[in-house]
Write a structure and sequence with these properties.
By secondary structure, the protein is of the alpha+beta class. It has one domain. The protein contains 5 helices and 11 strands, in the order ααβββαβββααβββββ. Strands 2-3-4-10-9-8-7 form a 7-stranded antiparallel sheet, with helices on one face. Helix 1 crosses helix 4 and helix 4 packs antiparallel against helix 5. The relative contact order is 0.21.
Amino acid sequence: METTSRVGAHGAAGTANGVSGARRTVEGYLRANFPWYGLDDAFTGPRWLMQVGTAADGTVQHGSTGHGDEPSIRPDASGAEKERFAAVVTVAASPVRHSGDGTGILDATTVSSAAWLAGSALLLSTWPAQLDHSLRDDWLDQQTETAFALADDLNGSAWSVLSLPVDGVPTTFHYRESEFGWVLAGSTSPGEATGSGVHIGAYGRGMSAYGLGFSAIEDINSYAPQ
């Protein structure tokens, strides 16, 4: 994928998933030079921080915020059905550029970058309850390869088009469903409210994507544990 390196994206998917370790503190989010996005005010449930992804020089490149129930890594069938969550992934919009240490070139980020991060993170938050733990890595590798290919083909038959509000403006998203949940991805336009455009990915389970809206987070501290 020309939008983001496979190695970088695989690592990013892990940091995008909030259930793989302790929550990051808000400091990582405050270091970002782009606006963070979450569900808009129509969502009244719990909000929580997940993790940020950084470049080798420490520059924040993306991160995620959670809404609803924190997903179990391996829920049983009944638990998975009861979970209702949506995670929003914000990716800094960046052109092709030199790495911070000057040793290489970083790929541009696009809508596909957001789709890849969201799709990979959804897989990390759940897998078939009947799957033996020893087979998880093989299953995850296979499924992330599929997620990578799907993210690189947003105009393919696996995706449909969905219009959702972003900062009150109808915005086109690429959307797909799977047995594990749903994934969507789109981009914002630069505006007065945010100063710069970003790519938005989202994934969830038990919560319909069709009624969601997104908005720039005015105060990321509102997502931090009180």
